[in-house]
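Reviewers asked in the last cycle whether our approach scales beyond single polypeptides. To address this, we selected a multi-component target totalling 852 residues and predicted its structure end to end. The input consisted of the following lines:
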Amino acid sequence: MPGKSPWKMAASLAAIALVAAGCSGSTSEDTETLPNSISIGIIEPSSLIPSNSTEANASQVLASLFYPLVRFDARNTPYPVAAQSITHDKANRVWTVRLKPGFTFSNGEPVTADNYLNAWNYGAYGPNAQLASYFYGRIDGFADLQSEDPDGTGPEKAPEPKAKKLRGLKKVNDLTFTVTLSESFAGWQSVMGYDAFYPLPKAAFSGDGVLNKDFGEAPIGNGPFKVKGKWSHDEKIVVEQVPDFKGTVPKIAGITWKIYQDLGAQYADLIAGNLDVETKLPIESLGSASGDLGARLGKTPSSSFSFMGFPLYEDKWKNPDVRRALSMAINREEMTDQVFLGSETPAKSFVSPVVQGARPNSCGQWCEYNPTRARQLYTAAKGPRDIKIGYNSDGGHKAWIDAMCNQIKGSLGVNCTGAPQPKLKVLLDKVRAGEDVGLIRLGWTMDYPLMESYLGPLYTTDGSSNYYGYKNSTYDSLVRQGSAAPTTAQSEKLWREAEDLLVRDMPVLPLRFGQNVFGYSDRVTDVTMDLYQKVDIYSIDIAS
Amino acid sequence: MFRYIVRRLLQMVLTFFGATFVVYALMFANVDDPFQALVGDRPLTDSQRAALNARYHLDDGFFTQYWHYVKGLLTGDFGMSLTGRPIAEMLAQAWPVTVRLALLSIVIAAVLAVGAGVLSGLRRGGVFDTVTLVLTLIVLAMPIVVLAPLAQLIFGIQLGWFPPTATRDANLYELLLPALVLGSLVVATQLRVTRSSVAENLRADYVRTARAKGLAPRRVIGVHVLRNSLIPVITLIGVDIGALMSGAVVTEGVFNIPGVGFNLFRGVRTEDGPLVVGFVSVLVIVFLVINLIVDLLYAALDPRIRYE
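The resulting structure, written as C-alpha cells, was:
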C-alpha cells in the first residue's frame, strides 16, 4: 500500500524525479569542439535560406557558409571575390558577371552560372514569399513574378504570377551570365554583395524552382565553411572548414555559432570564458564592460541611423524654420554620452558617413546644439506650443525619448511629451491614416553601401519608408540621375547635391548613428566587425 | 476509484478543447500582422503578404482557421510556426529540458520546505523558526527578475561555482543553479504552509490521544502529524509543478535554456499564434494530469477521502 508510509512514498517520488532530471545529462559533450575553433554568440536566426534572411544573425552564419560575388574594402568599395569580373554597359543597365573557375560547393558540385540564376529566380518568385525578395526588385521582369491578392485579406486566392523566371537574367556560358536591370543603376555591383545574391547548389532543389524542405536546416554553400551535422535550433550551429577551399582561407578551423535568447546571458558566458565573441553587448552591461573586458571591448561604426520624421501632412510642421529650430534645440552629444553610454554617435547628416561619398557633417549649423538661436527661430516661426513624440514602446526607446523631450522643453520653453504606441506597426498605421501621432521615431539600416540606400527609400516621394510624406521633385530627379550616372564618382556628386536639398528642407531630424559595440575573450585576436554587424571571419584568429 | 478516473478523463477532454479554443481565440484577437515582425522596420510587399497569408490560412475567418487547427491537432499535426519550423518538433525539443528543470527545482524546494517547515513547526518561536521566517520573507520579497541575474552574477561569474548558462542537453550540475533560482519561487510558500500545518496539527485531538497511548514521539510526529500536515502541502506542490513549467520564462531566459517558457515568450512577442497555442495545449494537458494525480494522492494520504 502506498499510503502506509509517506516517507517512503516521498523518497521514491523524489528519486524518480531526480533520475528523470539527470537522465540525459551525459549527452552534452558529444560534439566536442575542434582545436582552433572559436565560438560566436548569435540570436536564433529566422531562416538560413539566403533569399529569406533579412537580419544580422542569419547573415552572420551565412557569411561563413557562402562566398559572395563581391566583398567590400575598408572604404566600402566593392571588389570581386567569387566573381572574376563584373562589367557593365555604358548605360549601367546590362551587367555581365564572370565567375572564377574551379570553385565548388561544399558537397563537391561545381559552381556555375545556373546556380546563381536558379537561386535568384527562386528568391524573386512571389509565391515563395522570400523575405529578401525586394533585393531582386531592380532586375528586369521582377514585377511579372509577383501577384496581388485581388481582395486583400479576403477569401479569394491570389492568381499565379505571369512568369516564373526573371526576364533580366541570361546565362551566357557555364561561368558567365548577364543581369539586365529595369532601370540604369550605377551601384548594382554593391547590391550583389548582399546575402540574397548567393548561389544555391542543385542539391538544394527537389524540382525546377522547388526548394528542398529541409535545405535551410543545413545549407550547402560555396563558402569556406560547411555545416557540421544540422542546425540545432535554439542551441548552436557548428561549422567546420571545407578542405581545399579555393578562395581566401580563414585562419580558424571552425566556428560554433552559439544561440542565445538573451544578450545578458550571452554577456555572462563571455565574461565567464564560455564564449569567444559577443557581437552586441547589452546596453545594461556597457557601464561595467570596459572594466570586465579591458582592451577586449571593441567599437566600430555600423550603418544604422536613428532619426525623427516630421509628420509633414500636419500644418504645424510645414514651416522649415520650425523643423530647423527643433533640430538646434537638441543636444545630440549629451544623449549619446548619457543615455547610450557612448555606444552610438551623434548624427549630423542624412546619410551615414560610413558609405563612400557621404559626408559626416552635411547638416552643418542646423544640427549643432544652439538653444538661444533655436528659441528665437522657433518663436519667430510660431512653432507649436505642444510637441508630441510618437514611438513604439516595445523597443526600449522611452529613456532617450524622455531625455530628448527634456532638452526640447529646456531649449524652447514649450511642452513636450512622449506618446508611446504598443508597436511600430500601430504607429505607422496611424501615420498612414494621417493621424496626429507627433514626431515619428524611426530607424534605418542600409542594404548596400551606397548613399542611395538611404536617399532612395527614406526621402524620395515613392520611397518605401518615406512615411512622413516628404515630396520634392527636384530631389527625386537628382537621386534618379545619380543612380543612372555612368561612374560612381558622378553618382556620388549628384547624390550629395540631393542631400543638400534635404539639409535645406529638414524633412527629418537626424539623431544618431549606430556602432557595433562588441567584446571578445582572450582566446581570440584580430576581431573586427563590418557595417552589417558581422564579425570578419577571414581575419579573426586564435591568440597565440 | 476506476469510475472516478474515467469520469475525470472525460472531463479532461472537454476542458482541453475548451482551453485551446479560448487560447486560440485570444491569440486570434491579438495577432495583427505577424509577418511584419519578421522583416523589421521595412514594409512587407503585397505579394509577400498574400503568399504568407495563404500559407498560414490567415485570410480565412476565425472558425475556418480554428477548424484547420483542430483538424491538424487530431491527426497529431501541431502545424508550423511562422518561421517555418514544425511545432511538434519544437515541442519535442523544448519539453524535456523544462520538465527536468521543473522536477529538479520542485524536489529541491519540497525537500527544503518540508524539512525546514516541520522543524520550524515543532519548535515554534525558537531561533530556527525565526530565522527561517525571516529568510522566507526575503525570498518572497525578491522578484525572480532580480534573483536570477544576481545568482548568475555571484555564483556563475564571480565565484565560478556553476556555469552561468545551460543548454538544451544540460546535465544535472548545469541545471542546479537555475533549478535553485526557480525553486525559490515556491519554496517559501511551501515552507510556511508546512510549518503552520504542523503547528496546528500538534494541538489536534488525535495527537493528544496518540501521546496519551504512550506512542514514541518519533512515531507521533513521523506518522500522525506529518501525514496529516502534508495534505495541503501536496496540493501546493502539485499546482507548483505546473506553475514552474509555464512560469520559467525569466529563469530560462537568463540561463539561456531553450525550454517551454522561452518558446511561449517568443511566441507571444512575435505574434506567433500557432506556436503559442501548441505550447499552451500541451501545458493544459500537463496541468490536468498533475491535478488528477494530486487528487488521487489525497486518498492515499487521508483514508477518510474516498472516490467512487
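The longest strand of chain A covers residues 297-309. We regard this as preliminary and will revisit it once experimental data from Aim 1 are available.
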